[in-house]
Structures are given as structure tokens and as C-alpha cells.
Amino acid sequence: MEHNEIDVEVKNLSKNFKEFKAVDNVSFSVQRGSFFSILGPSGCGKTTILRMISGFETPSQGEILIRNELVNNLPPNKRRTNLVFQHLALFPLKTIFNNIAFGLKRRKMSGAEIRRRVKDMLERVDLQGFEGKYAHQLSGGQKQRVAIARCLVLEPTVLLLDEPLGALDLKLREHMKLELKKLQSRVGTTFIYITHDQGEAMTMSDQVAVMLKGRMEQIGKPEDLYNSPATPFVAAFVGDMNRFIGTVLAKSDGYVTIGIGSLKVKGVPQPELKDKPDSLCFIRPQNILLRPIEDQVPNNFQSFPGVISEVIFEGHTRSYLVDLAENFQLKVVVPQATRRKAFSVADRVQTAWNPNDTLCFSTDSLSDIDMNVG
Q1: Element housing 350 (H / E)
Q2: For the domain 234-372, what is the CATH code?
Q3: CA 45, CA 222: separation in Å to the nearest integer?
Q4: 337 has pLDDT over 70
Q5: Which helix (H) or strand (E) holds 306?
Q6: Rounded to two decimals, what is the model's pTM?
Q7: Would you list the domain boundaries of the chain?
Q8: How far apart are alpha carbons 344 and 322 in whole angstroms?
Q9: Rounded to an integer, what distance in angstroms lies between the CA atom of residue 358 and that of residue 355?
Q10: Domain 6-233 has CATH 3.40.50.300
Q11: What is the pLDDT of residue 172?
């Protein structure tokens, strides 16, 4: 099998609900055997896309192909997809065996074939020996695996997962992120995963599509979205970011200089900035050095004095809020493993970072970011 074979291709897909455009001319493809996530805030259209792929919604325009077959007019039961919901809907009065066997019995398979398939699936999701138990006897993570096994036993080309970890508590969710990725790698089925949680998408996915207001903002590997966000919304939504607005003072040698009060901050202008008078800039807290005021910083770094206004101990990291001149505040994240002495509130310090780590966009998307990121 070629690595670049495509299981799902979506072309110019749109969905209108009366006057409201829930999905607006979206295109993407999903490689066979990959874990593909659609990430975005509530109401961005991601679940609508999943429902169109599974056949529960009809596209207003565009095409959906599964293994090169156009499926727009096929009902859900004729498509080689299966859907795992947030609320797992396991049958409480059926054993785990009968929960997993449910779809096979509806297909009128022989008892021997059903037993073979269920036994194989229990092994693949690491639940062998649980076939006689009931849902109330399982942990949240085990229930999750039963719900996935019930879908996978029907051998779908694509498994669609709609926020399946949303109902779990935080610690179990963290555990299940890793479990789901291991399970997907083990079974080799293509997963399309819907989430509003960027941590889930970044941890598990081979590819992530970030959505806003029915449109795709960027599609790429998690590290590409993190390191090279294509739009200000992706910059704000993926990972932790400082953001600030300033006046464009100058452009030269591939950099832009942004004025924030009396401070002048250099950064990399993004194509959309063009000749706009103001800029929305981003710098990751992890990319900022925090040093005593008298220390030297690397020659290619820009440096600004400041005062620590807050210290947040987070176990493996310590976060500092640093007030710079003109009410300009930055968050700086320092690993706990560092040998440097921790700073305290009211300490005078300097912040320093490489201008290449400051991304400068236009301010046009600010309202979308404020509404969806906070």
C-alpha cells in the first residue's frame, strides 16, 4: 500500500442552514491509516463536516469521496464510515461482548464469525477477558474502548470521532489521548477526530485542520501549526501566546519595527500585514529569556527591561508576568529544571528574544480572536 493513498477527499464542501453558512467551501484530504483532527471553537462547523462525511447531513455543494467513491447520495448505512459520539451510548443491559457484536448481528453474520471478530477486536483494544462484564463495571477509559471496538468491528474505512473525550474528567482525558493514538496506530484504521481542545489535536494527530466560522484557516502537521501559524487566529488558538498591538514604524531587511509607547519591537511581517498601519504581534512565552538586569543576552536578541508583577508556580514550569514600559506585559515560561535562581515579585529583570520569534499580522482578525480565544 502506498503511504500517500487517500481514504477521504473533501472538495469545495459547503453546508447552508437557511441563511447561515455552517461550512464554507472546505477542501482537504486524509491519508489512509492516518489520524486527522479538525480543531476549532464551538460553532465553527467541524461537527457539520463530520455529519456530512457520515451521511447524516447532505452537502449544499461540493463532493465527498471515500476511497475514490463519490458518496454524497449514499445513506449512512451504505458508507464505509462509523461514528463515535461524545456520549458513548453503550447498551447497559448487554454484556461487553453483545455491545461489540450488536452491529454484526444486525448484518446477520454467523455465530462463529461474530465470535471470531469480537474476540479479535477485544484483543486489539486490550479488553480480552472483559466480554462478560457490563458497562457499569468498566472505567471511563474502558467504556471508551468498547465504544470504539463496537465501531471498528464493522471494519469501516474511516472511524469518525466527535469529541469522544469531552465527557471524561481531566486526568482520564490526558490518559485517553495517549491511549487513542496507540489504539489508532495498532488497528491502522483512518481516524477523523473532532475537537475544540488543541492539546488533544496536537498530541494525537498526524495532520490538524484548524477551522473558524465555517472555513479552514490552516491544515498541517501539529509542529507546523505551532511553529508557523498561517493566520493570527491559528497563532492565538494553537499553543500559548503573548499577543500585543502596536504601530508599524518601519520595514527593512525582512523585519518590521512595531512601536508600543516608547518601545520598539522587531518582528517578522506576515504577508497579510502589507501596508496596514497597526500590527497584531505574537511571541511564545517559552521563546523569551528572563535574565537579571545586569546580564548579557545573545547579540541577535532584542532586550527590554521590566519588573516582575506575578509569579505562577506550575510544577514543571514557573510562569512570570513581566511589566515592561508603557503598560506592556509579557508572560515568560521558565522550566523548573533550570539552575537559575527563581525571581520574585518586584524584581527588576530583562526580557530578551530573537526577532524571528515575533510574528506580526494585521489587526483585522482581532474580533474573531477575542470572541473565540479570550
Answers
A1: strand 348-353
A2: 2.40.50.100
A3: 20
A4: no
A5: strand 302-313
A6: 0.88
A7: 6-233, 234-372
A8: 11
A9: 5
A10: yes
A11: 77
